[in-house]
Amino acid sequence: MKLVSEFRQSELAQGLVRSIRRHATKEARFMEFCGGHTVVIMKCGLRQLLPPTLTLTAGPGCPVCVTDNADLDKAIALAKLPNVIVASFGDMLRVPGSCSSLQEAKAAGGDVRIVYSTLDALTLARENPEKSVVFIGIGFETTGPTVAASVLQAAQEGLTNYYVLSLHKLCPPIIKALLDSGEVNLQGLICPGHVSAVIGANAWEFIARDYGIPCVVSGFEPLDILQCVDMLAQQVARGEAKVEIAYRRGVTPEGNQTAIKIMEQVFEPAPARWRGIGEVAGSGLKLRPEFERFDAELNFEFDPGPTIEHKGCLCGDILRGVKTPPQCSLFRRVCTPINPVGPCMVSSEGSCAAYYHYGEENDG
User: Fold this and answer.
1) Which residues lie below 8 Å from residue 25, measured CB to CB, with a gap of 6+?
2) What would the DSSP string read from start to end of 180-208?
3) I need a labelling partner for 338 at 20 to 30 A (CA). Which of 130, 286, 322, 347 fits?
């Protein structure tokens, strides 16, 4: 915490805080979409530095957290099949599905392995030709291109035992769905840095144009976020609504066109279910017809069983920004990182985990 204290006392941080307080004369609520931003905000106590006119609200920016129980159940069911290796990023293993988790499936004899990239999953397929390897495709536009590249590589090598369960999500459609719902009144959006590095800042133009809400793309250092908040506060004070970039070392207006083309070559938009939100048209990715031989859902027979939601868990409300973790009766009492009830307590970018590790009992 020494580094946090030094940051808060630095001239740059104090200068940005003074600027924010000078500009934030109107009450405003800004949503940080990315879970990585939420963690930094909580860890560095950024909310406590802001004037009472400003409120920061966490949104559905954690891909592990927004994965619906029905989709988790598919991954767990696949892990129970014989001669199938399920390859997943580590933060997915402990996320509770309806009745189990990938970790419990592994303990029961399922072949579930943690990988750090799609390259690891491809290696598993090469080294285990007698088994089928199913990679659990989780993530936003940030990971979509890498999974698409793995499919192209598998096709090039002629691998017949590599599959993808695509649970990918697209960010602009879900933000539109949140704004259309009217549940949260926002005056500004802290746009995700990693996603914007791929799809470009121009992807958020519709928010400023159609909803009159200022947008600023932020990096992940605490100074990045303070600069982003200051830029949003200035737009609110001037009555403006436009898209700006506070993360120019990583984001351009047009994004990474090479990554986008690879993703679009392999995937096409599809409906997707979001935890606490439901099905949103065009907010997911499915493999195009020419790559269906790599689609795990189409090439295996499995029964995920009925979808069951955990009683009392407010992850869905928290992801929509209408509740905060301390408002959940399970938070800290029943739901903890050791015994998580919902994914927001499991993921390193989950709001509940951030509040648990860095928040106070009366936060929210």
Assistant:
1) 53, 237
2) HHTSS--SEEEE-HHHHHHH-GGGGHHHH
3) 322
How far are the Cα atoms of 34, 147, 195, 295 from residue 165, in angstroms, in the given order? 23, 10, 21, 6
268-288 residue pLDDT tens = 999 999 999 999 999 999 999
- Rg of the chain taking only CA atoms, in angstroms: 21
Note if the pTM is more than 0.90: yes
Nearest to 59 by CA among 36, 29, 31: 31
**Domains defined for the chain, CATH in brackets:** 9-310 (3.40.50.11740), 311-358 (no CATH)
Nearest Cα to 191, choosing from 205, 177, 212, 181?
A: 205
Give the HSE-up count for residue 89: Cα atoms under 13 Å, Cβ half-sphere. Answer: 16
